[in-house]
Specification:
Mean pLDDT: 94
CATH topology: Aminopeptidase
Shape: globular
Distance between the termini: 34 Å
Number of helices: 5
Low-confidence stretches: none
Order of helices and strands: EEHHEEEHEHH
CATH architecture: 3-Layer(aba) Sandwich
Strand order of the largest sheet: 1-2-3-4-5-6
CATH superfamily: Gcn5-related N-acetyltransferase (GNAT)
Oligomer: single chain
CATH class: Alpha Beta
Number of strands: 6
Strand content: 15-25%
Number of domains: 1
Length: 151
């Protein structure tokens, strides 16, 4: 694993992979209310962060303003997940900045495949080269409803 990756962007906001800076309670609050992980348990969020390459977005005052993570083996594949910018910080180009930082991370440069799922941000991700699966007949998944797995 590489050292901490950090970039400063628009308005003095910073993206960092320093796990010590992450506000897991704040991340959990956002994700538990999101359309993609409603009601997700705190322990599941914490475990997901611990097993991913996590990126915190921080306002100039140091408060966490957003988050993203790459679920990856750091060799061939990554899945971009849980990308968000808190409402109070939106409209400043921070989503683009956050995703660009993920895509620029040194450990993610030699990956063969980068995937994600989104219901509402196709335009954002298309800017970074994401598109429909090139061979959807090769891909399969199991989708479980939150109530099936989270008590």
């Amino acid at each position: 694993m590489t050292d901490v990756f950090e970039r400063t962007g628009p308005g003095g906001y910073t993206v960092s992979t320093d796990p010590g800076r992450l506000d897991v309670d704040r991340i959990h609050r956002f994700l538990a209310g999101s359309y993609w992980s409603p009601g997700i348990p705190h322990s599941t969020v914490a475990r997901g962060i611990a097993n991913s390459l996590a990126f915190g977005l921080y306002a100039p005052d140091g408060q966490q303003a957003g988050f993203a993570r790459a679920i990856t083996d750091r060799a061939t594949h990554a899945h971009l997940a849980d990308v968000y910018v808190e409402v109070a910080h939106q409209g400043r180009g921070l989503g683009k900045f956050l995703v660009s930082c993920v895509m620029e991370h040194p450990e993610l440069q030699s990956l063969r495949r980068f995937t994600l799922g989104t219901a509402d941000a196709h335009g954002l991700y298309a800017r970074f080269g994401f598109g429909p699966l090139p061979k959807p007949d090769w891909q399969m998944s199991i989708e479980r409803q939150p109530e099936e797995i989270w008590p």
